[in-house]
Amino acid sequence: MTLNTLAAAVGLALAATAAQAATLTVYTALEADQIKPYKEAFEKANPDVELRFVRESTGIITAKLLSEKNNPKADVVWGLAATSLQVLADQGMLQPYAPKSLASITPAFRDRANPPRWVGMDVWAATICFNTVEAAKKGLPKPQSWMDLTRPVYKDQIVMPHPASSGTGFLDVSAWLQMFGDKKGWDYMDKLHVNMAQYVHSGSKPCKMAAAGEYPIGISFEYRGAQLKEKGAPIDLVFPKEGLGWDLEATAIVKGTKQLAAAQKLADFAASRPAMELYEKNYAVLAMPGVAKPNPLLPANYEKQLVKNDFTWAARHRDAILKEWSRRYESKAEAK
């Protein structure tokens, strides 16, 4: 074989490999610093599939998917609130699929349908980030409950995520309505609103703001709070005694994808033990039991503090909840 012939053969082989490789468009609301290790791990295990991520906050990704219902642009959703995925499932937008490791997934952390339309990855839950240095300067006591945050001493000292933009914000509002009931839930949020400085468009931002001393109290979630505290931020993590609102990061295949086989590979990986070991670096409660390790910054009974969360109810009432919330509280929303 001449060098020219060999070069031609190699070129043909490379072209064939490229032709066989699939590219998946993946919509996600994962934290930006999580995407790279997840992508690298999947592509190492599946060298014939390349992932192209489109990342936005939960509310924006949910709205984008709904707007594209009749002309889907995404192949897979990897890392979006189960509440949002249930909205999509109810509209017939998700492809049912049972990942290979489905039997190892906790039943409460997957879609009720069989085969499921979405499968959970990990839990993230409400946490109050409390800046002890700034609070001491202002003479603010550490809150112990959600109700504590309505005390006059906290006026203009609190930030939290906007529920239309942030999955963390929505899990807060949904949990308060499920915990306290409709009337008492809205009454609570009315009182909390009096003390609210701003509703921001990110679930992690309130904790970052508290860690930086911009506000002494940020309603956020445990992963970001623990990460900032480990890095030396002067914050305490408060887990309100009434219970913690929560949601699942989950995975789903978008119905109509032209890359179904590759999408199924991603769904298999997302529900596998190797993937769970990646999620464990960020979260204390996983969809697959027996993988998570205790986090010294979280209570030993952390999982038991999660409130009862009806994903179906939350999904079906999401639009009405957000409309009412905006009518009452939009005046303090951060400018987009």
Automatic annotation (TrEMBL):
Domain of life: Bacteria
A GO molecular-function annotation: metal ion binding
GO biological process, one term: thiamine transport
SUPFAM superfamilies with a match to the protein in the record: Periplasmic binding protein-like II
KW Signal (keyword) present: yes
Any one cellular-component term (Gene Ontology): outer membrane-bounded periplasmic space
Keyword terms: Iron, Metal-binding, Signal
Sites where the protein binds Fe cation: Y223
Pfam families: SBP_bac_6
Signal peptide: 1-21
Protein known as: Phosphonate ABC transporter substrate-binding protein
Source organism per UniProt: Crenobacter luteus
